[in-house]
Amino acid sequence: MSDAYRRAMDALYLACVGLAGLAVVVITLVVPWGVFTRYVLNHGSAWPEPLAILLMVLFTFLGAAACYRANAHIAVDMIAGATPPRVRRALALLVDLLLGAISLFMVVYGLELCHATWHQVIAEFPFLSVGITYLPLPLGGAVTLLFIAERLWIGPPPPDSVVFSDTTLEEQ
């Protein structure tokens, strides 16, 4: 059962990385288009900036969940590194539990935010509900909760998992 969960988390991790990466690529295409239409054509497009903001929200929450799983997030280890291994493990557990509480908060109140704004629209995208644009918040929280559950239940992903290790292909 734990192997199946690990494989599912590997797939979810790759989906998060893929969507976050795609969001960054689209942002890098959309923003120059907005600059081009404003300064070269003297008639700015209204949609590039709001689209870039929406994609940045998607990138932020899904990318943060992926960074947590890959243990590539920002962490201040100076104090924990100076403690004995037993205390270090307790601090790591405390961090995971606190992040779990924050992620649960994101899920619960993010869903409430989506529900409260579902029937509002964005001026530049009248076909798009504001509630849909807030979905990355509870989704990112839920994905992070799944990754926390994996870490607490099975442990962190092994270096040879889809989380990239320091070895090159030739070394494998």
Characterization of the model:
The chain has 172 residues and is mainly alpha-helical. It has one domain (2-153). It has helices at residues 2-39, 48-69, 78-81, 85-116, 130-133, 136-153, and strands spanning 121-122, 125-129. The chain has a two-stranded antiparallel ribbon. Helix 1 runs antiparallel to helix 2 (48-69), helix 1 packs antiparallel against helix 6 and helix 4 (85-116) packs antiparallel against helix 6. Mean pLDDT is 89; it is low at 166-172.
Give the terminus-to-terminus CA distance: 27 Å
Largest sheet: 2 strands, antiparallel
Low-confidence stretches: 166-172
Proportion in helices: 55-70%
Which class best fits the helix and strand makeup?
mainly alpha
Counting DSSP E segments of at least 2 residues, the number of strands comes to: 2
User: Order of strands in the sheet with the most strands?
Assistant: 1-2
Element-by-element helix/strand order: HHHHEEHH
Nearest-integer average pLDDT? 89
Q: Give the total of domains.
A: 1
- What best-fitting shape do the alpha-carbon axes yield? elongated
| Helix segment tally | 6
